[in-house]
Each structure stands twice: as structure tokens, then as C-alpha cells.
Amino acid sequence: MHQLFSDSANREPKGTDQIVLDEVAHRHYRAEVLAHGLKEIVRGLRSNHFDTWEWYSLAKSADTFMVNQQQTTDLLAIEYLKERWKQVGVVPYSHQLQTARKVIFDMQGQAILADEVGLGKTIEAGLILKEYLLRGLARKVLILTPASLLWQWYQELQEKFGISAGIQRSEWDWGFSDILIASLDTAKREPHASQIAAIPYDLLIIDEAHKLKNSSTVSYRFVNSIQKKYCLMLTATPIQNDLKELYNLIALIKPGQLGSYRSFKNRFIKDKRTPKNPQELKGLLSGVVVRNQREAGTIQFTKRIVHPLVISLTTKEQELYDRVTRFVRERSREKGLQNILPLITLQREVCSTFLATALTLEKMMDNMEPEQLSHVADLLKDLANVKQNSKCDALERLVGEIARDKIIIFTEYKASQEYIRYRLERAGYKTLAFDGTLSRGKKQWIRHMFQKEAQILVSTESGGEGLNFQFCHQIVNFDLPWNPMRLEQRIGRVHRLGQTRDVHIFNLLTKDTIEEHIMYLLHQKINMFESIIGELDTILLHLNLGRSFESEIMEIFLAHEEQEAIRARLDRFGDHFIKGQTEAKTSTWDLF
Amino acid sequence: MQQLVFDFFTLLNLEPIEIRQGVWQVQADDALMKELDGWRAQGRLLQFTFEQRAAEMYGADLICQGSYRLNSILQVIRRQGILSQAHIPHEYFHEPSIRKKILGGFSASERAYVVNCSLQYTQYIQLEILVEARGLQKKESIHTVVVDLSSCKVLKFAFPHHLLKAGGVGADAVRKRRCSIKQALITASSHLQGTIVSDIAWAQAAENKLAQEETKLRDFFQGRTESDEYQAKKQELQQRLAPVLTMDALRGAILWVPLYQYRLVVVATSGKEQSKTLTYDPVGNWYLQDLDQITRDAPDRTSTHH
Q: Could you say which residues from 13 to 42 on chain B have a Cβ atom under 8 Å away from some Cβ of chain A?
């Protein structure tokens, strides 16, 4: 047997960049005779190395078997990945398979995958990539993503598709790796950009492609200069503000699909957000853009069940909360709304733990006038003296009730995270900490430990790489982020494709504090928790607030002291949000 | 599929044992496991099954369409047998009958005598060619083509499998090749283009699509067709959509086919003697060559008595 396999290691792998031995131009096609196989045969003849007739006959049967297998008009990848998907628990959704079929068989590998957030664009792209690899239509592949998603792509391709890609680290990698994942920001810089421009890629995949909406940017020009046979662009928001953005994106992968910009403008733009001849435009877009939406009813997500837990503060805690709030109001009156960020932080922290509040106050003391220092020092002293934390007491009780299953506790602050862990460990629970400063490897390790060993994960990070925890279905929001994007990211860690159980969301909110108002806005008014709002970034852009969501809330809070007045302003703000949501959906999305 | 797998193990002198219904076990050594699973793998007892249920129940490797184990086996098989050889032995043919046939082939006005007969082999190459028609989609097929390496002509039919015996023949009885393997492949490829590629709908569809896309591209560039960017985009279009037919030899086998070479003296009624060499191919049932014709006015009868 050793003898039998002795030569196989030396045989060259078959690639797509073959030497053409003979080329004939026919009327309808070009015929090429490739040299690869011939080279192998001649090598055998020269070295007088003949394999046995039995192996020859068996290999011939294997060739026929493989080719027959590939003649299917459906996706080969489905069969090839069936076993792997079963092992790793991936269930492909019909919209993902349909998208892959459409891109490969109808769109000739050029498409914008514009599914709504959470519908699995990466899975679709991976499926298409795998299919092209299996069919021998792609070998040299480049995947450009934001730097924060490199590892996630690497892991998804490896785990779900058995594709061993490389992550670009040095300038030598461009020529070396056949399937390479790289950061767009790195790739567009020299010396990388000119090296990439010289390589003919079979497939180019660009994640977060909406970053290429502006044709005058370096990123746009760089991507336009890449030689590519097939190209996939992934974005949930192909249009954010202007129809020209969509035109630019399409011009990158299929120039001419929408004509020249002048003709496009004349034929299809009424104003920058409203298309003319939408039906005609829709027809043209359907040849390049695939967009799956939740409303289509194709995807059955599990339910989100919200449990608001209202906690009454002790008299001492309430008094301290009021003092901090008064301090915030006074400072904002003195300093105006320009430097509002530390005050927002302080106001949010006081709803989390006094420990976090104290640390921020201490930092703020560096920039204070001497006459204010004594007042703040007193406040700090009182904060340090509070031994009870009603929120943590409630958390302990809650964990005691639901700890049969794994729990992720989210907090915005590192100090709160440490305090929560201290309290839970003291109560006998095994906890792990997760935050944005951890290296990739550590994040993976902690994820693994959480899945296999620990019961509770206390996280300060709501988004980012390596944070998919579908194996868990209980979230506790120890404090509430004021920005709905961050809230959606938190929930999205567990409530995503692959989650098989209903997700329970426990919100801890302190009575008679700003948290109550935030909860009212996010839950009762815009129903953030139970329904999936969708393209939040688009809605927020559409609202054209002129400042952050947090600042908007803070401004309302500072402008009024009476609870009714705050509630009335939040009502109006909530209505404005819902209107923006409806407009964002009905204006440009009708195109897909 | 099952037959392929069992044949694979048989060729490795391994005998899978059915340990439970539908579950087989075979002792794979280091070399085989490295071929199957990469350089880090080590020899082990390999359990496999063709049924999903049994795979789940006993943890055996599942062999089904698209499964990892089937693919690893197919890959190993396909790396073997790139070049092989087989021959048709002379014993398959009855020489006296051939001699009779040859002598009977002359006209009534001639008489022929066999001076001597030598047994030779000529070479053919059997090529397994992968034809890939790439238009809007890709379609693959495999074709077996046999090329005579002495004339560089394609045989109309492949040699019957049952006539071929594994292995080569002694080097001294072999006729030299007059056609290189490269020429043979090019000849075989032209033959395939002429015969199998009669349906060109795939190419026409791709051509039409390409033309449409090129028009759109020209419109987009609005007359700037000399620019590098336009040329680059046009090239991308060509790469993606232009119909191409590629042919590549996956494997080849040298086939040694027997020849009977007769040295003859042919005597005409006029008494004129002619020395002739006839080579007969019993498989193709034709005279291959007519060599060194020497005409003599004075007959030399003695030569016929050899």
C-alpha cells in the first residue's frame, strides 16, 4: 500500500489557472485543450510509472460518479454540507437556499445580498462560495469585511462550510492564500491595493457593502479596481438616504445595469428618496439585488417574552439617586448641552450601581472648579457608604428562580459587571465575564466555557465578533441602554437564526428613576423588545435627529422635571420614531 | 457507490467486515489514513456505513452522496490510475487463420508465399477526457477516446474491455510511436469537438447574454470605450460569460495491440516476383501497412521455401 500511494503526493493539484495547450475559435465558442492532465500522463510515461489496470478502471468509475453527481441542476453544496450542518446544528432556511440558487443560476454570480438584519446573509454568501468551489468555478477568492468581523467570517466559513480561509496579516498573503479574508480598510491602502489590483479574483465578497455607497471615496475606487469574475456585496441597507447610493453600489458589480447616471436620474429619480417609475426600476433591480424580509413570512423566529421587573429603591438609595440627578441637572445648566456625554453616563450609571457612578464622579472631579469639589466629595463619600444594592438583591432572587438554564446578564459598565459577579459568585453561582477588551482567542474560550461549564455570563459588550449565543435563551438587562441599536444587538446575540426556544428577556428597572421612562419609550411605545424593528440604523438616519438617540432623551429629561411632562415629550418622540420607521420602510424598500 | 467503496478496499487488500447489519469495519493503516484525512491522521479501525440511522447509532462514518468519507475515498481513488497500461495478447488470435486470410486476399492471377511472420505490438492511447462546456452555467462530461499512436488517428470504437489484459508487453516486440501524446490529445480533442459538441445552445445563450451585457457596458461608459476601466470591465464580462469549451485528459492508458507482420513473395502470372511486407491488425481487421516493395524480374524460387 505504501508503494501504491508513493507517487500521489507529488501529483499537482488541479487549479483553474491552467496552461492552454491548444486553442481554437469556433463560430459560437472558444475551445481550449488544457495541459494539466497531459503533463501528468507524460510524467508517468517518462518515469515508466504505470498504475495497475484495476486502479485505472476504478478511478475511471470514480470520475464518472463525480461528474454525474455534479450534473445536478440544484446546489451541490446542500448534499456536501448536509452531514456537517447536522453536526454543527445549522438548519438552512429556504430563503437562503433560494437566494443561493438565484445568484448562481440566474444572476451569474453577481448580486447584492440585501436581506434584513439577522436573516443570514453570511450563510447565503458562504453557500454561494462553497457552490462555486465545488463546481470548480472559483479558486481565488477575496473576502473584504470590517476588521471587527474578520474572525467571525473565518470561523463561520470553517465551521459551517468546511472552507479553510486565511486571514490577511501581511502583504505576502495576497498572492499566497487562495481564499483570503481581509479588512477593507487595510486592503485599500498601499502596498496592498496595488498588489490586489494585479490579481484576477474568481470571486469577491464584500461585507457591509453600504460603506461603498459614495463613488468618490478611496474604498469605492479601490473595489472598482479589483479584477473579479463573480462579486457578492452584503448589506442590509443598500439605500440609506439617497437613490444614488444604490446606483453606485450596482455600478460596482454590474456597470450599465441601470444605464448611465444621467439616464438613471432622468428615468428613475423623483427626489433623492423617491423613485420615478418604481415598477420599471424594480424590474431592473431584481436582476442584481436579492432582499429577503421578515414580513414575507418565510422565516419563523421564536418568540421574545419580556418580563419587566420593577425594583423599589430603599429610602437611602432613592435619596442618593435624587442627589446625583440634581447634580447632573445643575451641571448641565452650567455647562450647557455641549459637554453632555459625561452627564448622560452619570445619569445612566446611577440606575446601574453606585460603584460605577462613584468611579465616573471621581474622574469628573479632575475638571471641576475648587468650590464644587467639596460637594462632589460629600456625594462620593455617601455613595461609598451605601452597603445595600436593591437591584443586585433582585437580580440574585431572579437568578435563583431561573438558573436552571444559562443566563446572560448585560450591563453597560465594567464596575457594575465586577460587582454583579462578586455578588453572584458569593451566592454560589459560577460566572464568567465578557467584555470588548478581550482578545479574539479569549472571547472564543469564554464562549466555549459558557456553553460547556458556566451558568452565567456577565457581559458589557452587546455587539461585535464571536458573540453568538444561540444555545442560551435567557437575557437579563441589569441596566438598559438608551440606544435601541444597542438593545437590539444585545437581544440579537441569542434571538437569531438557529435559536430554537422562545427567548426570555428580564428587564430590571428601578422605580421613580429615568429608567422607568426609558422602559416606557422602548417597550410600551416602540415595542423594541417583542418585535424585531429591523433596520434601526436606517430608521435613525431617516429620523434625521441631528444628535444621538441618547442625547435626545437626555435633552427631554433635562428640560422637564415633572414626570408627566417628560412622559408627554417621550410620547411625541416615540410617535416620531414610529413614523420614521414606517416611512423608511415604505419609501425605498418597495423597490425590492 | 457501494461497489466503488468495496472495490477500493479490495484493491488495498483490505477486507471490510460487517460487524453489525449495515456497519462495516476495516483496519486502516497510517498510510491510508494520511491519504484519506491528511498528514496528521493515524491508522485506526475505520467503521463505515451507508445508512444515516446506523451512522448516528454507532458513530460510524457515513458514506452517502456528499458525505465527508465518500469524498475522501473518491479523492484518493481519483489520484490513482493517472497512467496505466493493458494489452491484447497474441494468443487470442489463431495465426494460421490470419495467414490463410492474408494469402486468400490476393487475386486469382497472383500467388503469394509467406517468407516469415513476426509478432509485434503497436501502441494506442486511451484517453479519458473531461469536457467542460462553460457558458451561463457549466456542464461536464467524460469521454473515452482511443488514438492510434502510429498514425495519430482516432479509433471509431474503443477496444472491447474483455479483450484487454492488465499490464504491458516486452519492449523488443513493440513498434515505435509516430505520434506524440500531445498530438494524440489534440487529435482526440478535435474529434470530440466534431462529434459530441453538436448541441451549441449553451454557447448561443451565453453569446446572447454577453452581447446584451456589452451593450449595457458601452452605454454606461458613454463612448469612453478606450479607457482602461472599460477594457477591464469588458474583460471581466468576457471571463464570466464568454462560452468556452475546455478539454483536459484526466487519465490515460497505453494499450498494446498485437500486429502480425508477414514478409511475402507475390508471383504474378507473368512470373514476375514481388517482395512485400504486410502488417495485419487482427482487432481492426485491416492491413496496416504495405512496406518495402521490391520488384524482381528474375524469380528466386528458393526464397519461398523459408
A: 13, 29, 31-32, 35
Q: Phi and psi dihedrals of A508, rounded to 5?
A: -90, 120
Q: How many residues does chain B have?
A: 306
Nearest-angstrom CA–CA distance, B251 and A8: 14
Cα–Cα distance measured from residue B265 to residue A365, given in angstroms and rounded to the nearest whole number: 123
**Cβ–Cβ < 8 Å for A84, A160:** yes
Q: B275: buried, middle or exposed (CB in 10 Å: 19+, 13-18, 0-12)? A: middle
Backbone phi and psi for residue A248, each to the nearest 5 degrees, phi listed first: -60, -45
What span, in angstroms and rounded, lies between the C-alpha atoms of A322 and A329? Answer: 10
| Chain segment B109-159, per-residue pLDDT in tens | 788 888 888 888 888 999 999 998 888 888 888 999 999 888 888 888 788
C-alpha cell at A150: 474578520
Task: Return the pLDDT at A426.
Answer: 92
Instruction: Write down the pLDDT at residue A458.
Output: 93
- Residue B294, strand partner residues: B275
- B168 and B85 in contact (C-beta within 8 Å)? yes
B229 shares contact with chain A (CB less than 8 Å): yes
Concatenated DSSP letters of A227-243: EEEEEEEE-S-S-SS-H
Judged by CB atoms within 8 Å, which residues 173-212 of A form the interface with B?
A: 200
Q: What's the CA gap between A201 and A187, in Å, rounded?
A: 14
b vs e for B26-43, b when ≥16 Cβ sit within 10 Å of the residue's Cβ? bebeebbbbbbbeeebee
Q: Are A321 and A390 in contact (CB under 8 A)?
A: no
Residues in chain B with CB shorter than 8 Å from the CB of A225 are 232
- Which of A53, A227, A251 lies nearest to residue B86, judging by beta carbons? A53
Residues of chain B with pLDDT under 50: 289, 291-306
Cα A353 from Cα A583, distance rounded (Å) = 39
ipTM of the predicted structure? 0.86
Alpha helices in A470-562 (DSSP H): 484-492, 514-519, 536-543, 549-559
Integer CA distances (angstroms), B19 to B16, B55, B59, B189, in order: 9, 13, 13, 48
The amino acid occupying position A265 is: K
As a whole number of Å, the CA-based R_g of chain A is 29
C-alpha cell at A293: 424580509
* Lowest mean pLDDT across A13-22, A46-55, A403-412, A430-439: A13-22
Class of residue B96 by CB neighbours under 10 A (exposed 0-12, middle 13-18, buried 19+) = exposed
Nearest-Å Rg of the Cα atoms of chain B is 29
Instruction: Please report the residues numbered 108 through 137 in chain A whose beta carbons come closer than 8 angstroms to any beta carbon of chain B.
Output: 108-110, 135-137
- Identify the pLDDT of residue A299: 64
3 state DSSP class of A586: helix
* Domain ranges across chain B: 2-80, 82-206+246-306
Cα–Cα distance between A53 and B38 in angstroms, integer? 26
- With contact defined as beta carbons under 8 Å apart, do A168 and A187 qualify? yes
% helix, strand, coil for chain B, step of 5: 35, 35, 30
pLDDT in tens, A101-143: 999 988 889 999 988 777 888 999 999 999 998 887 888 999 9
Residues written for chain A? 592
In this structure, what C-alpha cell is assigned to residue A506? 428580564
Contact A92, A80 (CB under 8 A): no
**What phi and psi, each to the nearest 5 degrees, are found at residue A504?**
-100, 125
pLDDT digits (tens, 9 = 90+) for A325-373: 888 888 877 776 666 777 788 888 888 888 888 888 888 887 777 777 7
Query: Among A109, A256, A267, which Cα is nearest to B215's?
Result: A256
State the burial class of residue B181 (Cβ atoms within 10 Å of its Cβ: 0-12, 13-18, 19+). Answer: buried
Cβ of B7 within 8 Å of Cβ of A58? The answer is yes
Contact partners, residue B144, CB within 8 Å, separation at least 6: B126, B127, B128, B129, B158
